[in-house]
Amino acid sequence: MTAARGSMREASTTTSWPRWLEICLVLGSLVAFAVWSYLRAPVGGDFAWSDAPRHALNGIFVHDLVAHLGEGDPRAYAVDYYLRYPALTILFYPPLFSGVLAIAYELFGFSHQVAQATVLSFAVVLGGFTYLLARRWMSQGFALAAALLLVGAPELTVWSRQVMLDLPTYAWLVGSAWCFTGWLQQQRPRQLYGTAVLVVLALYTKQTPLFIFPAMLAGLLAGPGLAVLRRRHVWVTVLLMMVALIPLVVLQLKFGQVNSASAIGSARADLSRLTLAAWTYYLEIMPSQLGWPTLVLAGVYLVGAAVRPSWRLPRPIMVYLLSWLVLGYLMFSFIMVREPRHDLMVLMPLALFAALALQRLAEGWLSGRAYAAAMTAVPVLCFAHAGAELEIHPVQYVDGYAQAVNYVIERAPANSVVMFSGNRDGTFIFDVRASKRTDLAIARADKMLFRVAIERERGIEDRGVDTAQLRQRFVDHGIRYLVYDPDFWQDQPSMAALRSLLADKSSFTLEETFQLRANFNNQDKRLQIYRFEGELRNPPLPLSAELVGVGMKLQK
After folding, report:
1. Which residues, if any, are the signal sequence (predicted)?
2. pLDDT confidence tier of residue 458, bands split at 50, 70 and 90
């Protein structure tokens, strides 16, 4: 075992890249892949996933809120902001990524392009941390291969090209693994402090990495054991982490009921925990998440490590990584809402294992120049594989919303309200706020006509609004333009009232229709722009909104 590890160290030393070349190759590869990803991402206000424009809008809100500090009551400002742009989810999700976006917006302006570039900057961070983690046990070329196998995993390439929280959370989490494995091996206090900071950053980006705590405990017990509890820096770290997470716990208890309900028992038609399908769901889709080459190589490593002690990592590290994989898998299988992106951060150990298999095989079969050639060829092949995944797996988009927004903002009266009735309200609202028409406010027809907790699948209650009441709301709230999807929720009585009202030629004029284009089977086909011809109240009555998911009503 010692001889085998000695040969590994010798191979990695005699074939190592100079420091300057290492930095250039690793950083250059990751930046090049991020740029390639950006060029294959929708960045024209054509969001497909409903949460993506909301995350992008949250960043604008944080930017505007910081700019407003010192000029009035922040809470009143936040309420007014939501009433003007009712697609915010800043309190339903942790706020860290919104803060990062706010900085990017301050530097480069508000746009879908800036939001997407910010997400992809975390692909570089994720790849960098994966490389540093892998370098603890691998030579440079194979460590870079591990990083590219992870950031180039098929499912990750899809979600890294949308403005979502998964990639930033993943980056912080893998950074914590780099620090924690260093602490397991060297017991330096700063490594444990770094672990705590990065875990807290991950949780303040998204709540789901909770599985990391039992995985860390398992690694601790397999390594230094309970004797480590005698060390002062361990207790200091635990205490500081608990204090740092108190605000997040408060936010979750106050505003995260819907997310908690989804985890415990969703109102959607999800797989029951009592079925085998629920517990094998992520196993079945793992090949499409990671790709067969990575999965097969990871299997080769695990089999090899089981029969050959020289293939194994130090025991605490193996226990930690396997616990990361197994406990994370069990946690996400327990959560009722199961989607391919949810368990992505669980799969990091498999990318490491795949690269380790390549290195162990190369060490056994190659030496000298042949090993050096393999160390160069493997990351090149992994980069090509990652690029192929970008080309093979296009990201969904729905194009046409930006054109509808441009039409409305060119014609809407100053300080007026635009009503939106359609499926992708987040896209429309973000595109309006990212424009220069900061005087406009948006009213959502679905909030005015129905009671819905986040999404229709969780239940919908029609408010019973008739045509006369609906027309009066246009008058009272100063709504001159309506952007209308004629296929949206047409089975509901209140939507029938709106449809009937729009048929009144004396009250509404259909000015324009925009066809929507998508690269998937999308329900959104067109947006119609109606102008309300009636007299508007001056000054208009303020808007109000009910947050059904948290049992709160907002009004000025």
Report:
1. none
2. confident
